């Protein structure tokens, strides 16, 4: 039979929390400290659908998105020592991924596109395309588009915006980031994010107006 001391020690041992319940910050900081591959794999799997879907929509090509995703997490591994404790991991990872995506576009001499059929719910790859994500109750130019065909038109217009405006719209609207998170990803002030968002939606609104005959 266990002694009283053994029983007390067992009771004092902290419960083991499954990796799936760790925060992103806990995973990254633990990986930086221990180099535990299971911890890193858990972090990669957590972003596997979300970030890949974003990159596929941003680059307009599934293979390019897959390559960029792999390179992005290679940089996460290489730069984990540079992550500042107290920051949020999600915008930090997105910043790395967007920089790699831009490098990819420059290397191939391409502009970004917006893939209309990429799943809009980045946590559910079986969800509908981005055109299905446009809600009908938001007071923005996009929210006034009431059917799928008009939604496709709006995303076609989005694809024509300058890069700096398109990045803000895709992060804030489609990735549901707060202005503060988008600002951190893009390394710009929050006020600049708001200004670019306003400019982008205003331009889209003008471009979506019926042209005079």
The fold-level CATH name of the largest domain is: Rna Polymerase Sigma Factor, Chain: A
Let me know the largest β-sheet. Answer: none
What would the principal axes of the Cα set say about the shape? elongated
Number of helices: 9
Task: Give the CATH superfamily of the largest domain.
Answer: RNA polymerase sigma factor, region 2, helix turn helix motif
H/E topology pattern:
HHHHHHHHH
CATH class of the largest domain: Mainly Alpha
Look at the helices and sheets and give the structural class.
mainly alpha
Residue runs with pLDDT of under 50 for 5 or more positions: 115-123, 125-147
Rounded mean pLDDT is 78
Tally of separate domains:
2
Termini gap: 92 Å
Spell out the key features of this protein:
single chain, 213 residues, mainly alpha, Rna Polymerase Sigma Factor, Chain: A, Arc Repressor Mutant, subunit A, 2 domains, 9 helices, 62% helix, elongated
Q: How does this model look, in words?
A:
The protein has 213 residues and is mainly alpha-helical. The protein has 2 domains: 97 residues, Orthogonal Bundle (Rna Polymerase Sigma Factor, Chain: A); 80 residues, Orthogonal Bundle (Arc Repressor Mutant, subunit A), CATH 1.10.10.10. The protein contains 9 helices and no strands. Helix 7 packs across helix 9. The chain is elongated and about 65 Å long.
């Amino acid at each position: 039979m266990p002694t009283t001391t053994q029983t007390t020690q067992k009771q004092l041992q902290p419960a083991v929390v499954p990796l799936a319940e760790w925060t992103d910050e806990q995973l990254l900081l633990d990986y930086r400290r221990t180099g535990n591959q299971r911890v890193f794999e858990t972090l990669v799997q957590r972003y596997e659908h979300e970030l890949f879907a974003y990159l596929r929509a941003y680059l307009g090509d599934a293979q390019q998105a897959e390559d960029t995703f792999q390179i992005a997490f290679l940089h996460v591994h290489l730069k984990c020592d540079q992550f500042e404790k107290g920051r949020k991991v999600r915008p930090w990872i997105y910043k790395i991924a967007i920089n790699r995506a831009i490098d990819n576009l420059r290397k191939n001499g391409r502009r970004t596109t917006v893939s209309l059929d990429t799943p809009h719910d980045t946590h559910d790859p079986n969800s509908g395309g981005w055109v299905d994500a446009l809600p009908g109750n938001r007071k923005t130019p996009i929210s006034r588009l009431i059917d799928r065909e008009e939604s496709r038109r709006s995303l076609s217009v989005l694809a024509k915006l300058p890069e700096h405006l398109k990045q803000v719209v895709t992060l804030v609207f489609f990735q549901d980031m707060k202005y503060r998170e988008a600002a951190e990803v893009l390394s710009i002030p929050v006020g600049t994010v708001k200004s670019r968002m306003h400019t982008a939606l205003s331009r889209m609104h003008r471009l979506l107006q019926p042209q005079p005959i």
